[in-house]
Design a protein that fits this description.
Blueprint: E1 5-8, H1 10-19, H2 26-36, H3 41-49, E2 64-67
Antiparallel strand pairs: 1-2
């Protein structure tokens, strides 16, 4: 399985940590959150992609890191 590293703001990382159970990986949590979101999620993602670099929601400006390893 390939892995990817994503970056996010520290505040978002803290919110994810607060929701994650001890027996759950971050990828499991993210998968559940995406499944639970409404069908409007894709439309929100498309709007996000249209933002300029450095804007408030730019994914490259984050400081927190989540890394999901193999195995």
């Amino acid at each position: 399985m390939r892995t990817k590293t994503i970056s996010n703001r520290e505040a978002v990382y803290e919110r994810l940590c607060a929701r994650k159970r001890d027996d759950e990986s971050f990828i499991d949590l993210l998968d559940q959150l995406l499944d639970a979101s409404d069908s409007g999620w894709r439309a929100s993602t498309e709007r996000f992609r249209g933002r300029r670099s450095g804007s408030r929601g730019d994914h490259r400006s984050g400081t927190g890191r989540i890394r999901q390893g193999t195995g």
